Amino acid sequence: MQEIKSATDYRLLLESRGALPEGFSTGFNRLKFVPAELGNGRQMEMNLSMLLLNEATDCFAGTFTRNLFPGAPVLLCRKRLENDKFRGIIINNKVANVCIKTGVEDSERVLAAAAEKLGCPPSQLMASSTGVIGWHLPVAEMIGAVGDVVENAEKDRSGNAYSLAERIMTTDSFPKLRSREVEGGRITAVAKGAGMIEPNMATMLCFVMTDLDISREYLREILPGIASETFNRISVDSDQSTSDMVIAASSRKKPCGNKDAFKQALYEVCSELAEDIVRNGEGTGHVIKVNVSGAASVEEACAIGKALVNSPLVKTAIAGNDPNVGRFASSIGDYCGNNGIPLQSDKVEIKLGGELILSDGGFRMDPEKESRLAAYMKETSMLPEHKGWPMHEKTVDIDINIGMGNSVSTIIGSDLTHEYVRENADYRT
Questions:
Q1: What is the pLDDT of residue 201?
Q2: Nearest to 207 by CA among 79, 54, 390, 60
Q3: Mind listing the pLDDT tens digit for each residue in 179-236?
Q4: What's the CATH code, domain 7-279?
């Protein structure tokens, strides 16, 4: 990434990536509401956004959280995937619409109002919500605002996804947007997410648009695997959200002569967004990249990597720029020992920042290496309270060779800082 010195620089960078594929537009509105659950009369603001196709498409796909307390929009979208056509999705922040008895009905009422304005069947629209779990959607206020959202989408002349990436944020520090030009067409995708990040089958919220003419069957074939290899290999805090989803759609306006090239471009877009999400994690001071090799299976490689990035002791050591490498070995041994993985400690090799720290069953540390590694960790750090744009794209690289097979995986995680605790302690209050 080019050097970014201000939020303005970052916005210009995202706008340079953000051209919408042919056949797509976006619309927005902002509304005020009073959460009944707080009981204090405090007024809040909600962004209401829309991703719209100019014409309904039969090429759309989705993948969702496995959390067994799924949000109402997840339930609704799963059902809408059975339909023949897709026209767009309405997205709100601030309220997640989870564990509300009227949740699906509430989302459907908002979609019905949008569909009436569009002149399309409500079944062609999906919903996505993010924010506080346990609050009711302000349905009346949303219905009052959604007409302007639709009108703005139908009149959209910006042709850029930047505003969508910005308006779907909650505790995110900066918008996330990636794209590729491929086979004469385009893939553009936005994502949001900063906490409750360890997805399974999806990410927090991600919306993928393309104008390349691929089939519905092919998109649905490749999306779960790509999500598994990108979004499912990140963790900020090991908590899987109730509302995670990836929705992808094609307007089918451009011929696609090479499906493999499309698949690779989609993988690259999702991989970059996944790392952006971790870099944007609540209170993140370091991005940790764990490369596991020599595992007996990809599943074991992923699990060992996640055991490391999810260890509070590892996360806090890295937050403090402390090369406390004993915590690395302990976390790996803990996971393998308690999950039936016949690890042989004398075959394991661990590197930190490219420097060998463990091999042949023993640590390879000395005072000079301790100092170099502490300086390396400090050089890769960010200010956890920094907002507006990513300070850099550096990572703390940990390479682990398990010595048991040929499978590999890369897991990306974040450290654990005071800022993460503060932000989540104060989230509603």
A1: 46
A2: 60
A3: 999 999 999 999 997 655 556 544 478 999 999 999 999 999 999 999 989 988 887 6
A4: 3.60.70.12
Say what the alpha-carbon torsion angle 272, 278, 281, 283 is, to the nearest 10 degrees. Answer: -130
Judge whether 203 counts as a catalytic residue. yes
What string of H, E and C letters represents the secondary structure of 67-93?
CCCCCHHHHHHHHHCCCCCEEEEEEEC
What one-character DSSP code corresponds to residue 393?
Answer: -
Strand partners, 128: 91
The CATH number assigned to the domain with range 287-425 reads: 3.10.20.340
Q: Amino acid letter at 245?
A: M
DSSP character at residue 147: H
- The amino acid sitting at 74 is V
Task: Check residue 172 and give its pLDDT.
Answer: 82
- pLDDT tens per residue, range 221-253: 999 999 989 988 887 655 556 778 999 999 999
Options 26, 170, 171, 203, the catalytic residue: 203
Nearest to 125 by CA among 247, 37, 209, 7: 247
Q: Which one, of 188, 193, 157, lies nearest residue 175 by Cα?
A: 193
Q: Note whether 7-279 and 287-425 share their fold.
A: no
pLDDT at 15 over 70: yes
